[in-house]
Structure formats: structure tokens, C-alpha cells
Amino acid sequence: MKTKSTNINKGAAAFTILFAGLFFLFMARFLYIQVTGTVEGKELPVMAEEKYSRTQTVDADRGNILDRNGIPIAKDTPAYTIEAILSPKASKDSPKDKPRHVVDPEQTAEKLAPILGMEYEDLYQLFVKRIEEDRYQIELGSKGRGLSYQKMQEISELKLPGITFKEETIRYYPNGMFATHVIGFARKGEDGKVKGLQGLEKTLDKYLVEENGQITKKSDRNGISLLFQEDEVIQPKNGANVYLTIDQKIQAFLEDSMSKVMKEYEPENIVGIVADPKTGAILAMSSRPTYNPNDIPSGAYMLNDAIGLQYEPGSTMKIFTLATAIEEGVFNPNETYKSGSYRVLDRTIRDHFRGGWGTISYLEGFQRSSNVAMAKLVMEKMNGDDRLLNYLQAFGFGQPTEIDLTGEASGHILYNWPIEKVTTSFGQGSTVTPIQQIQAATAIANGGKMMKPFIVDKIEDPTTKELIENRKPTVVGTPISEQTAKQVMDILETVVSSEKGTGKPYRIEGYKIAGKTGTAQIPDGKGGWLNGHGENVFSFLGMAPKDNPELIVYISVTRPKLTLHESGSQPVSAIFNSVVKNSLQYLNIKPTISDEEVKQVQKKKQVGFKLDSYEGRNVATVTEELTQKGANVIVIGDGTKIVDQAPYANAQVLSGERVLLRTDGKHAMPDITTWSLRDVMKLSDLFGLNVNTVGHGYVKKQNIAANSSLKDGDQLVIELAVPNSPEEEIVEQADSDSNTEEPLD
């Protein structure tokens, strides 16, 4: 018994020691927690807050980008991502007639594909492959993301088993392909935040970025909100709203006309800028190629050519050479000179119409875009000194305008050698950017005051409407006087209105347009220039209305695909005329030409008529009849009866247009010099000629001499030139056909 009692005592002592140890350990732990206020490195108040608090994020919106009238160009919008639940496990607890997974992949793909713009087979195979991989749930790729509410509703109404949606906020561009290289785009990153990646979305990200808020609610252990406990609220902060100087209507005019020309002529590049000459505000800016920021294809062209493209501008540079000469008092519009060619040491400068126009006035030389006139102004009237260089620098060439966009280039003025001084005067050798030409042109259209171009108007707090930034027009120089600017504008108007001017295609009924054409050569990368019809940069820099300019518009089209009878002015004028006419009407700018002037213009317009069939009729009778209607009749053959005609019966022709009549008897080749290619093709149709052309424009030379025998199927070779339209402006070495420009000692 004693042994048993001893064991009991020992056990009791052991339990006492164990419990005493646990008690002291508990007390030590309690005292530690009491003193430090932490458990396993976590503070007790924080743990309690986490246990009895529920926090909910309140989404904020990224700032809007709007046009000058408050129309959204970029904004946040609700969107939906479609998801497909593939696993039968999802339908485990649901009624058999209401499955929660994709039961019939074939039918689901068939109904979804046309709505999502996907191929049925691709979507069906996606379902099949992922089901084989035992995937529970999938998204349907890029076509299934960013769906609008309307499209989500359309899909929901199909009641397809297993098809669900996830709501999110995306950056949306309501106008699609609209000032894309200006606006850029923003996308949601891996952290869930939207970030600007291109254009103004990137450069103004610090203003546009939003800050999400949150609401914290107090609750008991069961998650029920506690009475008399106020929620802790951190208000969301939306991004600032950015207002641009762009006008949505004018931008739309530009985009639409550029898209039409892009489709019809398939050029390599198009640039268009519309600006207010009084302020420098950019009303529209776009370029091609471009992309839709809502759905960006791989390899999309991201550069903003309106500010970043450096190229030889061609004859639009003559505007500023003319302004320099007038300001320096060396331009006499009535003084004459011999056009055609001009020697600079061992180099020969030629006009685009190589033979020239004989002895003409400097005014006519400018209207015809004569290179020789510019060369003589620089080398003889200004003694080949640095005056032109100084003025070009004053006009802002050779340095960025510092417009509020990234990626702007500086261009480079070549002015070291005599030949460079001459070529720079008419837009070769030196490089500029489109936006530099717009800035420089504001001095011409704005009484000598040159305005800095800007595209951001103001930045505004979306809640308080307080201005964070407010951009104002800035005069960046006065390179010429008001009197000089007015005289230049007067001369630029004659480039368009005069029958000798290269700007005739840019006439707009009811308005006086001032401007200058440009046709620039393109380097071939081998030290020479691209050759061939359309292998140029064709451009026009114009102001409207001439007497009180509200718009400056620059359009350039690079390497359009032209037919043999088309000139580079056609795609350019298709954009310029459409944008200017629509913009002036939209801005309620009334026509500036009087009713009497309009009547005079209308009187000069050609009147058309329809041709009859003249086959078998007497030549003399038909010739007299057509002549009375205003046709220019060309009779080919010594017979008395007509056997064929061009154009053919029922064709509509204009007064003054050539109508060719083939008679019986022997046929002689007509003198076709000065004929258009279109008229030559009429001759080809009548005789089945094999026509080969050199150059473009109007016939200058023909291999079959006039009055020599003409037979069906003859080989006809013609050399073409354009005396009254902008052409390649050629700098040639003496006694050489090379266009290579090399500095001279």
C-alpha cells in the first residue's frame, strides 16, 4: 500500500509541476502580448481590424480626353469579357434542364461566332481542345474582350449554357480611327491599372491617371454590420479631364477625305494638319497609315508623321524664300528674267518644265513654280549671302516647334555650299517637318506674327472644374513685317486664281484661297532619287479665306498610284478641297467672292455636250457641227466620209475637248505636241497604236513625225512634260542627266 501511495504522490507532484509550468508559460505569453501588443509579429489592433472589418474598393475613372467643344475622344466605359464554363462539375448541383456548363460546343460556337466576329471552326476547335485538356473555364481571346453592353445583352438573350460575363472598365475611343497618332492609347497592365502607352495618353498620364477609393465597414464575428459605427471612406479620385484644341467635326472631315484617298490611290503615306493661324491651335491632325486604338493590329504604325517626318518639302518652301526677298526689298514682281535653266558654278538648275516659258516676270515665275526664279533671287538679288538662312531660322526651320506632343523632329537646313543655298530656296536638300511648315505659315497668314502650334487647350479637375493648366496662344517670333505678309498672301492667291498658276486644282467656289503647291523628290537610298510617274511627295500648303484666314491646311501625299493621265495634285486636292470647303461652311464663314465674281467664274466654266454617231457621214458637215458646239475637231485622213470617231457615240465631252474623226483614204500622223495623254489614247483607240510614254503630263516629243504616214498598229513613243503643274524639281550636273547633288568647293 505504501508503494501505491508513493506512486500516487509522485503522479500528483508531476501533474502539479506540469500545470504550474503551463500556467507560468501562459502567464509569460500573456504578459508578452500585453507588453508588446503583437502576436506572431502582427499587432493585435490590426488583427482585430482585419477580423471585424470589411473593405470594398471603389473604382475611379481615368480622365477623359475631349475635343474643344467637350466631345469625348477617349474615355473609360463599362465592358464585358465573355467566359465559357466547360467542366460538367459546374452543373453538379443544378437541375438537369438548367446546366451551368457548355453542353453543346458545336451549337454554342455556331451562335457565338458571328456575333463575336470569329470563325465558327476556330471557336469550335477552341472548345473541343480545352474540354480535352479538362479546363474548367476559359476566355475566348481578344474578340471576346471589351464587349459593349449591347453586345453582352445580345449574347445573353441566346441563353447559352455555360456562357457568362465578367464586367470591367476599359479605355474606349468612340470615334475609332480618329487622330490616332495624336491621342495614342492606354491599356490595363498586369497590376490592373490603366496606363498610357502612346501619344497624349502617355505624355499626359500623370494628369489622366485615377486613384481608387475604398469603404471600410465594421462588423461582428458573423459579418453583420455594427450599429452606431461609421464607415471609413476614402473617396475615389478621378483623373483630370484634358480638353484639346482639336475640333471633332473638322477632324472628321480630314479623316474621311484621307481614308477615301488612301483607298483610291493607295499612297505610301498621307499627312494632314489643319490649324488656326491666329492662335496656332491645331484643329485637326492625322496621318496614314494608322490604326484603330480599340483594336490594334500587330505591327501597327505608331509614329506621328505630322511632327516626326523629316523630308524635303519641295516648292512649298518657295513661300518663305519669296517672303525673304520681299522683306529684303529685292523682289520686283514685274521684273523679267529668262526661265528654263540657271548655272551655279558647274551645276545647272532647271525648271520643272525644262524648256522654260521664255522671258517672264518674277510674279509669273512664282505662279509657275519656277526654280530658276528662286535661284536668281538668292544668288543675284541677295548675293548668295546668309540672309535666306537667317530668315528660315527665324521662321523656325531647323528646330522643333515644341508642340505638346512627343516624337517631334528638328529637320536640317543645308546652307554651306552655293548649290545648297539654291536648292534650299526651292525645297530640295534641306529637310523640314509638316508641323514646322504650319508654324512658319502662321506668320504669313497672321500679319507677320508667328504662332506656336499647340494641341492641349486646358486640363480641368473633373469634380471642382478648377483649371489645373490653361494653355494660351504664344507668339514665338515676327520673322517678317505685316506689309510683307500681306504681299505674300496676295501673290499666293494668284497661284490658285491665275491661269498660269500651279494651284488651279485647289480653287473652291465662293472663296479666295492662297497657297503653294509642292512636288518633292524622294531619295532612293543609293545616292539618287526615285523616278517614275507618282514617285514623289505631292503637297499643298494653303490658307482660307485669303483676306482673313481662319484656316491653314497642309496636305502631303507620298507615292500615290496614279494613272498616266493623273497628276499628283488630284489626290492632294481631293483632301484639301473637301476639308476646307466643309470646314468653312461648318464654321459659318460666308463666301468671300461677290455674286458678280461668282457669275464671271461660272461664265468661264466649260459646258459639255453629248456626241452622236458620225460613222458614214460627211466630214465637212460633221466638222462644222462639232465646231459650233465648241469641240476641237481633229480630222485624220484625206477621205470625205467618217469611218470611226473618238470619243464614241453618247460620250459626254466638254467644250474645247478634242474630238478625233477618222476618214477613209490615206492617213497622216497629226502633230500631237501639247496633247494630253487622254487625247493620245483616243488616237491609239482609232488606229490600234502601241503607245510607250516617257514622263507624264502633256506631249513634248513624238517619234512619228507630224504629217508622216500613219498605219494601224504603229509603235508610238511620246515624251511628256507638265508646263503648268508641279513636277519634280530637278538639279542636274552640267552636261549630265544625273540628279545627284554633291557639295562644291
Automatic annotation (TrEMBL):
The chain crosses the membrane at residues 12-32. Signal peptide: none annotated. Residues 726-745 have a biased composition (Acidic residues). Residues 663-722 form the PASTA domain. Its EC number is 3.4.16.4. It is found in: Membrane. The keyword Transmembrane applies. InterPro entries: Beta-lactam/transpept, Beta-lactam/transpept-like, PASTA_dom, PBP_dimer, PBP_dimer_sf, PCN-bd_Tpept. SMART domains: PASTA. It is an enzyme of class 3 (hydrolase). It catalyses: Preferential cleavage: (Ac)2-L-Lys-D-Ala-|-D-Ala. Also transpeptidation of peptidyl-alanyl moieties that are N-acyl substituents of D-alanine. Residues 724-745 are annotated as: Disordered. Belongs to the transpeptidase family. This is serine-type D-Ala-D-Ala carboxypeptidase. It comes from Bacillus suaedaesalsae.
